[in-house]
Write a structure and sequence with these properties.
Blueprint lengths: L10 E2 L5 E4 L4 E5 L2 E6 L3 E4 L7 E5 L8 E3 L13 E7 L2 E9 L8 E4 L2 H4 L5 E4 L2 E3 L10 E5 L4 E5 L2 E6 L3 E5 L5 E4 L9 E10 L3 E8 L10 E3 L14 E3 L5 E4 L2 E2 L18
Amino acid sequence: MTPFPTERAVRTTPEGLLWEPSDRWVRGVRGEVTVVDSRHPVLVWEPAVPVPLYAFPRAEVREDLLRPAKNPATGTHTGSRIFYDLEIDGELQENAAWTFPGADLAGHIAFEWFGRVGRGLDHWYEEEEEIFIHPRDPHKRVDAMASTRHVTVEIDGTLVADTVRPVLLFETALPTRFYIPREDIRMDLFVPTGHHTGCPYKGTAGYWSFRDGAAHATNIVWSYPDPLPAVGPIKDLLSFYNEAVDITVDGAALERPVTPFTRRVPERTRK
């Protein structure tokens, strides 16, 4: 009997890629055409990129739809030298797929996700569940927990939220996010922007900006009106970028963290 693994089965390539086999059944679709149908995908982490992507055995890819790239996107993926355009019904998606260098991932092809970079395959499924933006990292947790902590939020010295019934969202490698009921937020100080983002762990979020109109407070608060079941408690609650506002929890002021989202926060709000 094969022993149950107790450590990550991640391998490293000479180019600095991390990769790991996955047992999930993964399909990738462009329009109505299934381009990838794989029961042997591998997850690949590129250096300095916090989220994984999938690569697939060639036998599980519609290679008949791939063409040598007319304008290879060199430098966009670690060490990649071979890029492909995807052609379906006369429509060409440039640099939709590529191969990684080295022996470890030889015979595999990776694809761009349209929802992440604006090209590539536009629908992805793990088993029968659609996933968005990028594959879920099997070594990452996202937990939403109701709390009675006293949380306040200030923007430029103005108190905009005060609650003792937040939901705390704990996500691996990111700061704790505090989701607050609308009744405990000065919603008269915010205006919806029409901006949306997607998350494979939480769903699709809508955004608000601080009403003073300053660029530094644009899209500073968000909410998930229809979150994925795993984080159902955050439904319709609002959360602020810790990186951009002043949050106090049970009387203790939190430091503003530096995260991959910090670059989205204009300079004036940083401390």
